[in-house]
Amino acid sequence: MKNPNGFGGTYKLPGRRRKPWVARITTGWEKAIATRGKRKGQEVPRQIFQIIGYFETRQQAMDALTLHRISPVTPKHGLTLAEVYEEWSTVKYKNISKAMSQG
Description:
alpha+beta; 3-stranded antiparallel β-sheet
């Protein structure tokens, strides 16, 4: 059965794996130059994907897509340790006094 538009997709990786099913969503589009086929050398649109996770069964992958649809998790890839600390400290030290934060 076909998934609704914008829902995401699942596919199976080749080979013998413990978790062969992948759940992924499209996060955007980019323009790229085609390297083969009829449109070789022309600008073509390409999808940018975000992998939600790897799963043992297709049903588990579909359940993960459904949960992601209800409450999406924002990816934190590429953050440095300093950026993670700054984000954490704004939440952690939101309600403390000035003297406590300096000491």
